[in-house]
Write a structure and sequence with these properties.
By secondary structure, this protein is α/β, with parallel strands linked by helices. The protein has one domain: Metallo-beta-lactamase, Chain A (4-Layer Sandwich), CATH 3.60.15. The protein has nine helices and 13 strands. It has a seven-stranded mixed sheet with strand order 1-2-3-4-5-6-7. A six-stranded mixed sheet has the order 8-9-10-11-12-13, covered by helices on one side. Helix 1 links the parallel strand 4 and strand 5. Helix 7 packs across helix 9. Bound molecules: zinc ion. The site of zinc ion has 6 residues, from loops.
């Protein structure tokens, strides 16, 4: 893993979300967890070298951020919408999908039970562990339940998937206008070093590029609607965007389906049929 500061370690190069942990004077706090169970066990061994695990914080409701929680024995903290989404997940389907990620996974998924958040917040909360302060700030955008996790003493913020750094942006359930506001909220944070939901560590200079891509998606979908295309036609004729960025690690071949899901969601958003699951 990459040591980002004195106490922050991150992993941005494996399948699943970019995640990390913080070492404090009273144990370790992880932020998000690996998508693959075998990676979760590797992280668990690494964390154990630094002290007892106190808490896991999840930054958003997608499975690539919380599947690995199950392999740790620590309470999870997240937005209340993250808890609800995990509890509402069809676990049989979820486990079947994750089992395809590698040869080691099926065995590790036997008897899988998610470690869902037991401490939840709505607009935000502050957690003190040892000498460290973790500030969670609700920032809807990529989904309705995103949070930025700010490590005050380290100058680092985990942004969740409100930032995809130089990899394809997933807007499959996004509210693009709230997302643009979230990017402005990130710009106003004290923290200057960002661990994005996907991609390598970045800084505030990337926010304008992320915003421009969301603006481009908005314009592209609005244009399809203005030209009278039905949702199916708009999805069918979607040609742009696919090659703009590479897909994140482990997402090869998924670009066309992600683009279609992005289009379907934004079409609903601009035609007034948007609902957040
Ligand atoms: Zn996500």
């Amino acid at each position: 893993m990459q040591q980002l500061t004195r106490n922050v370690f991150v992993e941005t190069q494996i399948r699943g979300c970019s995640h990390g942990f913080v070492t404090t004077s009273d144990g370790v706090v992880t932020i998000d967890s690996p998508h693959k169970p075998s990676d979760a066990l590797r992280l668990k061994a690494e964390v154990a070298k630094h002290g007892p695990l106190r808490y896991i914080i999840n930054a958003e409701p997608h499975g690539d951020h919380w599947t690995g929680n199950a392999y740790f024995d620590a309470p999870v903290i997240a937005h209340e919408g993250v808890r609800r989404r995990i509890l509402d997940t069809n676990m049989e389907e979820h486990v079947a999908r994750v089992a395809t990620f590698g040869p080691e996974e099926p065995k590790l998924l036997e008897g899988y039970r998610p470690n869902a958040p037991v401490i939840t917040f709505r607009s935000g909360m502050t957690l003190h562990v040892g000498n460290h302060t973790f500030q969670m700030i609700h920032m809807p955008g990529h989904t309705a339940y995103q949070a930025a996790i700010c490590i005050k003493e380290e100058g680092v913020a985990f942004t969740s998937d409100n930032i995809f750094h130089k990899v394809q942006t997933w807007l499959q359930e996004a509210n693009p206008d709230l997302w643009l506001l979230a990017l402005e909220s990130l710009r106003r944070l004290d923290e200057e070093v960002f661990v994005p939901g996907h991609g390598a560590v970045c800084g505030k200079d990337y926010l304008s590029e992320q915003a421009a891509f969301i603006e481009e998606w908005k314009a592209y979908v609005k244009n399809a609607i203005d030209r009278g295309m039905t949702k199916d036609e708009a999805i069918e004729r979607l040609t742009a965007m696919t090659d703009r960025y590479p897909m994140d690690v482990g997402q090869d071949g998924m670009a066309p389906s992600v683009m279609k899901r992005n289009m379907a969601n934004l079409y609903d958003y601009f035609s007034g049929n948007h609902r957040s699951p």
